[in-house]
Every structure is written in structure tokens, then in C-alpha cells.
Specification:
By secondary structure, this protein is mainly β. It has strands spanning 19-21, 24-29, 39-45, 58-66, 71-74, 77-80, 86-89, 95-98, 101-108. It has a domain at 37-115: Jelly Rolls. The strands form 2 sheets. A 6-stranded antiparallel sheet has the order 1-2-3-9-4-7, with no helix packed on it. The protein has a 3-stranded antiparallel sheet with strand order 6-5-8, with no helix packed on it. The radius of gyration is 15 Å and the shape is globular.
């Protein structure tokens, strides 16, 4: 039996194509890595993000950059944002980013576009 040591994986987000999402544009990494249980997204959020929720996904937003008036709507509560904040969004919580920002979104389990729901 031959044992192999898992190799580190490196992603340069500048080479990952952006795809439209309810929040703006997401660059998604590690979706193809079978032994990693989630995905990591570099997301640029536009001012016209759509309120949505997930039935199974947990998202964790780490705010990298944001406008002074940026906020995150979680159900009926609005949270003012600033760089360095980290917010976990469990399944079922309706959420919408308000204002321009760039976030790192850590998603568990792996992101599935079929789990984006709108009221």
C-alpha cells in the first residue's frame, strides 16, 4: 500500500473567473477539492444585492473592505460593517449586504447554487 501525503493547494483569486451571484460577483475556490468540505469565495458586493437565504449552507463573511455606510441585513436586523468584522450566517437566516464591499465568504458545506432561495 502506498501512502501519499496531501499537498497544499494555492489559489490566486486574480486568476479565478468571477461569476454573478445574488450579492454581486463571486470568485469561488476549492469547489473541485474532494477532501476539503467547503468553498472560499472572494466576493465583490454591489449596491443592489438581493436578499436571500440558504437551507443547508452556513456562510461566514469576513469584511475586507467596505463603504462607510455598508451594512448587513440579517432577517430584520441591520448590522453596520467595517473592515475586520467576521459574521457567521446560519442556514435559514435571510441576509442581504447593503452598500459596496469586498468580503471573503467561507461556505460549509460546499457551495451549491441550488441552495439560494428568495422570498
Amino acid at each position: 500500500m502506498t501512502l501519499t501525503t496531501p499537498q497544499p493547494r494555492i489559489v490566486d483569486f486574480s486568476t479565478v473567473p468571477g461569476v454573478p451571484c445574488p450579492c454581486g460577483t463571486a470568485r469561488r475556490a476549492f469547489a473541485e477539492v474532494a477532501d476539503f468540505p467547503g468553498t472560499i469565495h472572494l466576493t465583490e458586493i454591489s449596491v443592489n444585492a438581493r436578499k436571500h437565504y440558504h437551507k443547508t449552507l452556513t456562510e461566514t463573511y469576513y469584511i475586507l473592505e467596505c463603504a462607510a455606510d455598508a451594512e448587513l441585513e440579517l432577517d430584520d436586523t441591520r448590522i453596520p460593517l467595517k473592515p475586520g468584522l467576521c459574521i457567521q450566517i446560519p442556514p435559514g437566516v435571510r441576509h442581504c449586504a447593503r452598500g459596496e464591499m469586498k468580503i471573503l465568504n467561507i461556505v460549509f458545506p460546499k457551495f451549491d447554487p441550488a441552495d439560494e432561495h428568495f422570498d
